[in-house]
Design a protein that fits this description.
single chain, Immunoglobulin-like, seven-stranded antiparallel β-sheet, 18 helices, 21% strand
């Protein structure tokens, strides 16, 4: 990775540069997943949900605050990743309508009322600007840059009269990103002054984490303990590091992540918050908005700092927590997901901290509509950050999934096909084609868990690749050449709440496959509301060798078909054995407090099947472990 240096234009140079939207095309299961999203809520929300269909952002009488920009921020990348004309027309309609109605003073969007704080509330504009920058990169529309510049001039004038407050003060980095984007295209020095003003008026997240007050489950709603604000704040130190050049800011990222893991972390790489930070109990929830915002924060950190642990965590969230919070057809979602989720019902007696009785059902807008608007960015933004450019004009693979990358390097047309079913298999095949010989470096991320990884070019010898590093291949590429990457996936265990255990393999976390009973309780198809009840037992303790889990776990796989993120089509599974714990029961319509491991049970030993967390709708992920004197290898 290139050494960080101060840019001559005033910002620290990014470790990597994102490829223009449309340079990466999804393939294989990823293309299928994005198509499911396009055919579900994302592609149709503007046709029936009043907050989008009649949005004040496009001249309607509906909500005119954050929901329209949230939806657009996911719709735009989805449309151009799939090259879907229907979706691109929707994005074009919204962007051109907003541009056409730009105020004479530069303000973009409707004025707000007392419900949202103050008339010139900048928070929803922050989200809009992120959507507009993506649209401009995909289309080259020069009107967008001019409109953003005028809007930022208006914002600068406003901030001299009314400093940031409320949501905008807590989420200022979202504006900083668009400000940097514009500066790197225009070179206008006043934009850095504007960014400095924004930082001075921002909430200081780094100071909060240096003396972190939220070390237990919270019960009172505050801006500072709000889970989505904290998910956005993960990138706060690095974003301001670009402006300050202060290593203290850069290093602060690791403090934020370590603190959240210590007090609120979950097996999937996210942290609890239903709706405020809620501790490590796996029955507490995590808001969907926090999942997608954590992902975007990590994508931003990868761009700025380029450190492998951010990519490892991003994969972990994207392949586990993200798909698990949607109905497999993506026509319904949860507000809160739980690592131990054994029942999804409307219940007044509930485990959540500040959320309502319907927070974990699957529906159109359970609990509150922010996730209905904001859920759309998760898959598309992850797909658009799979690969990036390096400062020395090369390519770097950050997240592995089937896709095709097309770009120009030193005047040559370069195409990279990623042929794989990863994360469900260990092998990744890269097919690199150029229209003429061209010299450039290719960096391959080797995940921190991938001990014994190897890389092979064509028929050459296999080379070892050290876990937790970038494997660099710098050479002249000519014609078509193939690279084989092997990432061994050993079964691993993770110590969790009350000395329980979670089982992992590669980037996937595995959970108990609980039989489901879906009951429609409201709405209308296809965007109905659903409760999900268990049809099989869930309260098991595992008979497991924690130090050598391969002795007591057996991995199996089958051909991938359809979406891998549904229980019936999960392509991989792990067999393990366990006994029921009759004393572990439901409390507050959720799995009760995890008993401290090790535990004892006289119930019969049963064969259990675990499938990827992202393929489950009901699940147990953190298991008690049985007390065992001797563990023998199981024969299946």
């Amino acid at each position: 990775m290139a050494k960080q240096t101060k840019s001559t234009r005033g910002l620290v140079e990014n470790a990597f540069t994102t490829l223009p939207l449309g340079s990466i095309r999804p393939a294989g299961w990823l293309s299928t997943q994005l198509r499911i999203q396009a055919d579900g809520l994302t592609g149709h929300l503007d046709e029936f949900w009043p907050d989008i269909a009649d949005s004040a952002w496009i001249g309607g009488k509906g909500e005119g605050w954050e929901r329209g920009p949230y939806w657009l921020d996911g719709l735009v990348p989805l449309a151009f990743l799939l090259d879907d004309e229907r979706l691109k027309q929707k994005a074009h309609h919204w962007i051109t309508s907003i541009l056409h109605h730009q105020q004479s003073d530069g303000w973009l969007g409707p004025f707000q009322d007392a419900n949202y704080g103050y008339p010139y509330d900048p928070w929803p504009v922050f989200v809009l600007l992120k959507a507009m920058t993506q649209y401009q990169e995909a289309t080259g529309d020069h009107h967008v840059i001019a409109a953003i510049e005028r809007c930022m001039q208006k914002l600068l004038a406003l901030l001299t009269q009314q400093p940031l407050t409320s949501w905008a003060m807590l989420r200022s980095t979202e504006l900083a990103l668009s400000t940097y984007w514009l500066y790197e295209r225009t070179g206008e020095a006043w934009l850095l002054d504007f960014a400095q003003t924004v930082r001075q008026q921002s909430f200081d997240w780094l100071a909060l984490y240096q003396d972190f007050p939220y070390t237990t489950r919270q019960h009172q709603w505050t801006f500072q303990s709000h889970v989505v604000n904290n998910a956005m704040a993960i990138k706060y130190p690095a974003v301001w590091y670009r402006l300050s050049h202060d290593l203290h800011d850069r290093q602060g990222v690791h403090l934020l992540l370590a603190t959240l893991d210590t007090y609120h972390g979950q097996a999937t790489g996210v942290f609890t918050g239903d709706e405020v930070l809620a501790g490590k109990n796996p029955s507490q929830g995590t808001e969907l908005c926090a999942v997608v915002e954590s992902m975007f924060s990590l994508e931003t950190l990868l761009t700025i700092l380029g450190e492998i642990p951010f990519a490892d965590r991003l994969e972990r969230i994207a392949f586990n927590a993200l798909p698990a919070t949607f109905k497999p057809d993506m026509w319904a979602h949860q507000y809160d997901q739980q690592a131990n989720q054994v029942l999804c019902v409307v219940a007044e007696d509930r485990v959540y901290t500040t959320n309502g009785p319907d927070a974990n059902i699957f529906g159109l807008a359970p609990n509150y509509g922010c996730c209905t608007a904001n859920m759309h960015q998760g898959w598309p933004k992850c797909a658009s950050h799979l690969w990036m450019r390096t400062p020395d004009d090369g390519l770097v693979a950050l997240i592995y999934a089937p896709c095709v990358i097309t770009t120009d390097i030193a005047g040559a047309s370069v195409r990279v096909e990623v042929l794989t079913t990863y994360p469900f298999e260990e092998n990744i095949h890269l097919r690199i084609s150029t229209d003429r010989p061209v010299h450039f470096p290719l960096l391959l991320r080797i995940p921190g868990w991938a001990e014994g990884a190897t890389v092979q070019l064509e028929q050459g010898e296999r080379q070892e690749a050290r876990a937790g590093t970038f494997y660099r291949m710098e050479r002249e590429w000519s014609g078509r050449q193939d690279v084989a990457l092997h990432l061994p996936m050993a079964i691993r265990t993770q110590a969790r709440y009350h000395n329980s255990v979670a089982i992992e393999r590669g980037p996937l976390v595995y959970a108990l496959n609980i039989e489901e009973d879906w009951r429609q309780i409201g709405g209308e198809l296809p965007h109905a509301d659903w409760e999900v009840h268990p049809k099989s037992p869930w309260n098991y303790a595992l008979e497991l060798d924690r130090a050598q889990p391969e002795r007591t776990c057996v991995f199996t796989s089958r051909a991938l078909s359809g979406t891998p993120f549904a229980p019936e089509s999960a392509p991989v599974s792990i067999q393990v054995q366990g006994r029921r714990l009759p004393t572990w029961i439901m409390e507050h319509h959720a799995a009760g407090e995890l008993p401290e491991s090790p535990v004892r049970s006289s119930e019969p030993l049963e064969d259990l099947t675990l499938i990827p967390y992202g393929s489950t709708n009901l699940r147990v992920t953190e298991f008690p472990v049985l007390e065992n004197k001797v563990l023998q290898r199981n024969v299946w």
